[in-house]
Backbone:
């Protein structure tokens, strides 16, 4: 082998040259992600178990997240936001999810769904009215799903009936993330059930609107600190000024935001898997069996090497989808691929973490059983894995 070496052609890397490697972050991106992770490590980690047990964020957390700027990543500076990119949102979600995927989904919904929809579809008056609030202290929620319409989202039945200068909303939404904390809701309803998806319209609804109440909160398997509630609309008058986009074009608002939102869920899944692997690497170096650390067994080494490889693959898929979106290039297939792959990878990786902790992996005194429960949601919300596969197949067969 020595004979094959030729030092005369050795390449000296130029570390100052711009890199096109997907995993290379700009200084600004790296600093941002590091600062979010440092915050999560110091301010969130001590509360993770208690928040999971009580199914609630701790009292000052949301205020602190606003202070950090992660709840207004893409809001332009003119409206009080960070004026950063979609890619920054993805980096924040990944970093938070390494510590607590419940906090990550709060940030994800706020940025990739609610703010994204308002920035793209809101008119100037709506932007001036709502973006500064979302940047300062108001959590947003995104309400599409109903009892009878999940994967078949446009079969929704919440009605919006025109009445003078308003629409009157009647119906019920289910599974709405952030509903306990939110002050502002993007709600999808139909103005004409006979028109199918062409009747669907998006509305901006404030929490204090008469006729609107937040209902029962779900008791969940994972991401327990994140609230998931039903919403009730009983003759709720929403001004025509608060129609987001055009009447009958809400399906476009939903499709376009969810296409992007699923990249955020991919990032959440990369984060939860990385968090589980980080814990596991620490644990297996400490835990001794047969007179040595279990990390010394090649069988264990191969398992964590494979998990790290899968995390890296998922991360590159997430970053690639986010960069494509950022550059205005087609990203639909890549977004669906990154969500389906990252969420299945996260289930495998967190399951391995439980296995490598042995009995300690199965109890709440150690962190990995929670991450295993948290990972499961990635295959369900913002389009189940089957629906992602349907999107990918459609693109391949078009
Ligand atoms: C914790 C949590 C948070 C959520 N947050 C929000 C939120 O903030 N806003 C919101 O609007 N919604 C939210 N949802 C709803 C979520 O998006 C839906 O649960 C999801 O889209 C699946 O819909 P469903 O539950 O009705 O399942 P169904 O659509 O009934 O699907 C059940 C099963 O059938 C499969 N299936 C359905 N149709 C097909 C098909 N055509 N081909 C193959 N398989 C199919 C699915 O893949 C799935 O495995 C949340 C859900 C949860 C659990």
Residues:
């Amino acid at each position: 082998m020595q004979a094959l070496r030729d030092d005369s052609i050795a390449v000296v890397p130029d570390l100052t040259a711009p890199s096109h490697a997907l995993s290379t972050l700009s200084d600004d991106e790296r600093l941002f992600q590091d600062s979010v992770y440092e915050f999560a490590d110091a301010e969130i980690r001590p509360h993770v178990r208690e928040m999971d047990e009580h199914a609630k964020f701790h009292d000052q957390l949301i205020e602190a997240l606003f202070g950090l700027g992660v709840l207004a990543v893409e809001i332009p500076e003119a409206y009080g936001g960070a004026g950063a990119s979609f890619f920054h949102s993805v980096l924040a979600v990944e970093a938070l999810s390494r510590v607590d995927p419940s906090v990550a989904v709060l940030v994800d919904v706020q940025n990739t769904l609610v703010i994204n929809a308002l920035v793209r579809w809101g008119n100037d008056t709506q932007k001036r009215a709502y973006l500064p609030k979302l940047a300062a202290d108001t959590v947003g929620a995104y309400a599409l799903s109903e009892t009878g319409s999940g994967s078949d989202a446009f079969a929704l039945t919440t009605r919006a009936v025109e009445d003078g200068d308003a629409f009157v909303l009647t119906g019920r939404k289910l599974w709405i993330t952030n509903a306990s904390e939110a002050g502002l809701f993007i709600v999808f309803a139909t103005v004409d059930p006979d028109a199918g998806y062409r009747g669907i319209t998006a509305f901006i609804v404030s929490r204090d609107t008469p006729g609107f109440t937040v209902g029962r909160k779900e008791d969940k398997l994972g991401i327990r600190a994140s609230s998931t509630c039903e919403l009730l609309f009983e003759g709720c008058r929403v001004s025509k000024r608060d129609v987001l986009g055009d009447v009958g074009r809400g399906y476009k608002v939903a499709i376009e935001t969810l296409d992007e939102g699923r990249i955020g869920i991919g990032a959440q899944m990369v984060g939860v898997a990385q968090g589980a692997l980080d814990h596991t690497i620490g644990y297996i170096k400490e835990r001794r069996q047969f007179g040595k650390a279990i990390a010394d067994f090649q069988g264990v080494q191969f398992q964590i090497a494979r998990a790290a490889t899968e995390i890296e693959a998922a991360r590159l898929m997430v970053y690639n989808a986010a960069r494509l979106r950022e550059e205005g290039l087609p990203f639909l297939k890549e977004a669906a691929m990154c969500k389906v792959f990252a969420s299945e990878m996260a289930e495998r990786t967190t399951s391995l973490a439980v296995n490598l902790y042995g009995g300690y992996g199965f109890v709440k005194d150690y962190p990995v059983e929670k991450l295993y429960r948290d990972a499961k949601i990635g295959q369900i919300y913002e389009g189940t894995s089957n629906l992602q596969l349907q999107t990918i197949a459609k693109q391949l067969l078009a």
Observations:
- The pocket of flavin-adenine dinucleotide is lined by residues 109, 142-145, 150-151, 175-177, 220, 228, 377, 380-384, 386-387, 390 (CB under 6 Å).
- The chain has a mean pLDDT of 95.
- The longest helix spans residues 250-286.
- The two ends are 49 Å apart (CA to CA).
